Automatic annotation (TrEMBL):
The keyword DNA damage does not apply. Keywords: Membrane, Transmembrane, Transmembrane helix. This is TIGR02587 family membrane protein. Pfam families: DUF2391. It comes from the Bacteria. InterPro entries: CHP02587_IM, DUF2391. The chain crosses the membrane at residues 12-33, 53-72, 87-104, 116-133, 153-172, 184-207, 227-246, 258-278.
Amino acid sequence: METDDTARGTPFHTTAFVTGLGRGIAGALLFALPMQMTMEMWDLGFAMDRFRLALLLVITVPLLVGIAHRIGFEKTVSWREDVRDAMIAYAIGILASAMILFLFKLLTPETAEQDFLGKIALQAVPAGIGALLGRSQLGADPDDAEDAPDSGYGAELFMMAVGALFLNLNMAPTEEMILISYKMTPWHALATIGLSILVMHAFVYAVSFKGGHALEDTPGWHALIRFTLPGYVIALLVSVYCLWSFGRLDGTGSMPTLMSTIVLGFPGAIGAAAARLIL
């Protein structure tokens, strides 16, 4: 018996869904392991301000829904199915994170409730994003790109924000971001800004990566103004948010905050550019 989806021309395939689920589990492990095996993330799971942690978890939900709209566990035809895929990805992130933390004895039956829940909740954010990215990057069908929704300008900016957030989540908790910012001079900061913008633009338009965008008859400055510079601003905003969430800006002045943002904005810019290529 055919489902309603079949009547619309997109039949539901249980096998395809299970395959996508398997890729999601693999993606959760692959993309989240760098964070799950760092001491900073273990400590933050206990010490992170609960309001900031709750806000991060709430923000993650619409991010996952937006990603699922493009690359869910199966081809979807409605936002209801996108929400379903997002919730499945979140559940995978929670289960995968709990499994790894128990495996490495970072969680035990004796672990305090606040530490227990905090560690799993924090690790589940990148793991949930990784679960959805797994379908896109771990052997998706060749014709998936043809079925992906058209990318409007807002969708492009949204995916750049997702890419910046995902990479920044790996970097922002570390002390190295603050250490580098203190070592840098204003000239180093200006050079970092220039290199960030150059790398973003080159990744998408200049070096012919798979998924890159050809300029053809479009002037280079048009793409720079319309996509690259707004993408870099988004990467900086995401960097500020990540640093604030993890308490890296508490008690700091405006100049140290600016320098730390510029430092974290470099990997954020790369993540934003990569998201335009692969999502």
